[in-house]
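Changelog excerpt

This revision adds worked examples to the README so contributors can see how folded entries look when concatenated. The first example is reproduced verbatim below.
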Amino acid sequence: MEEFKSGFVAILGRTNVGKSTLLNLLVGEKVAATANKVQTTRTAIRGIVNRENSQIIFIDTPGIHKPKTKLNETMIETSFGVINDIDIILFVIEATSEEIGRGDMKILEKIKESHKKAILIINKIDLVKREKLLQLIDIYQKEYNFEAVIPVSSLKEKYKDVILDEIEKNLKPGPAYYNVEEYTDQTMRQLAEETIREKALKYLQDEVPHGIYVEVEKMKFRKNQKNEEMYDIEATIYCLRNSHKGIIIGKNGEMLKKIGRAARIDMEENFGVKVNLKTWVKVKEDWQEDSSIVKKFELK
């Protein structure tokens, strides 16, 4: 019988390169918010993959970007802070790059300093021709001795086992750190907050989403009159300005209803029970500089 292996794997990359989508694909459950907007992930989220001979714990990190607020600084510290404690790095870049940009170089320098095993994932390969892809691979391989280079289009299921097999090959023998039924160490409250925020990111205009955070104030389990299990969830979406509040609520409350409806459907699917969701919107102008709130996004 093969020896059981386990280890921690960090997914690093610039904002919006597809890290969260990749995490969700590998874990097979929705643990990270996915939206086509930068800075979607704010904390290091762990996704757990249990295989026959291994347990792989993924840490999805906030994308590397230029910090403008205390929140941004915390997010970047979180990303680079995980490197010391992991076994393998999945470095995600975009196939459309012609050279190593500033953000990618910053990450590459951190990888070099760490001397950790690293696998290069080149995402969005459907957007470039083969010759360009080969040139990009060549540029990166001259910079670091990657264990493997895997070109992917991260939304496709067929890449899942290719990546997981490569990770497993590079893990050391070790115990299962988590129960095999678990796929994330996030609490249901955190997953609820993350789901609502993801839907807000999906439906709102560009300038609003990154000025919001979601707080679940009540999460109560009960049985309804039909004896069905359900959660009553009450959540507040905080935003930076009054004008943003109007956009989030929308005409006749339509936008807020749309966000709430989409979040509820997702949660019911994820939690396996009915959800009764109520959402409110409040303005909190300086929350991105508020230490008590920013602390939530630090690596635990």
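The second example, added in the same revision:
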Amino acid sequence: MPMRVDFLCGPPVYCDQILCRAGRGGMISRIRTFISKNQMIRPKDKILAGISGGPDSVCLLFVLQMLQKELDFQLMAVHVNHGLRGQEADRDQAFVEKLCREQEIPLRCVSMEVRERARREKLTLEEAGRLCRYEVFAQEAQRYGCNRIAVAHHGDDQAETMLFHLFRGTGLRGLAGMEPKRDRLIRPLLCVERREILEWLREQGLSWCEDSTNQQEAYTRNRIRHSILICAREQINDGAVRHMMGTAEELAEIEHFLEESTQRAARLCVREERNGCFIFEEAFDQLPSLLKGRLVRFCLAEQGDGLKDIERQHIEMVKELFGKHTGSWLCLPGGRRALREYGGVALTREEPGEQQDMGALPLVEIPGSCRTGEKTWIFSLENAQKNQIIPEKTYTKWFDYDKIENYPVIRRRMPGDYLEINREHGRKKLKDYLIDQKVPVRERGRLLLLADGSHIIWIPGMRISEGYKVTEDTRRILKVQIYGGEEDGREDPSDDSGG
């Protein structure tokens, strides 16, 4: 049943009149202290306030206006019409326009198609509405050069958030609820309960709009607000919300301390890599159990979609991977992978198009050159000289061309690949060789090889097969040089005096 909607009646109420009635104490004083403690507003800030027309946002608008001269900041407002409630939504917008016009506060009204976005992105209306609101806030803040965005979350919202996270499964960070300040977003009313806000508005003779959807228990947060929190106040403790607000503040301080500890641990335990990171086992083992889980979470949060779909069980599975044998791996949400390697665990993410790029390798021309990414391969053919000395170079190699049975190709590894490891033609599987050389699992599939059928001629940067080495019987030499890209500082053909 929709609640009665009040509009401002009679002469407008001005901020100076409110300040006179409100005095210097009570709720306003606590909000002022809360703003100062959390360093929400600095002199010369420009603040964009999100105003829906409901009691919370009306309170926010007047409180900010009252503190404007004292704290020396500029104030403007933005209203988002979600297009979900028909005439009621238009009524709310008209109310906000009238309010801001009377208080001489610059206002922007923006309409969004929330229902269409929810359908398109398969979101609930709550989720789609929230995304639309914050996108509008960010866009309008940028448009008008606002460095602070104020929203009207209060203590009851904090309690709802804590319970919502707890029921769905969360850690310390979720139990800490919403932060008073995060980047440029500020929540000045987070220190007061909603009943205080309503009482203050009535005392000041201020009106507001009521959103009828706030009474619909189809929304999860509404059920928490109208059932659980009311029950807690009436049947357990009237100060339940106030106590939860205090707990959230204390947990936030603990969370901040642990976050700093986690970042220090990351500097000791983690190496950033091209497509993820590597956690060193020895340093990781020295961490307290609590920080181990937080470190894994921190590393995953740095990749792509952050912690989307990452749950507690995934964190535990990665921790357990440190006790598994080398080569063990896990698939994690969002295309992530955890690989047990020599000396630790790698957390990686497959880059878009990576698999396609792996197959797009050039044909070899002898003589000639080709490119793989940022590297250039140069192939040349020359006659062997008597008593010729073959220099030892990492990225320039000489091969007995006549021993190559097929035409040499540049490719990735394949099943059945092998090398000859001695002059007696003893073979070793490429997989076993890479394991012996402790090449990380995630790197093996990206290695570029020079191959003759299944026989690997050369693993650049590592070794060549004994079967293709130049001997006294060699008549023609295939010379292969690689330079450029990641091999910066290694051999350049212009400096190569060998061969």
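Reviewer comment on example two: DSSP finds 17 helices and 21 strands in the chain. The first strand starts at residue 46 and ends at 50.
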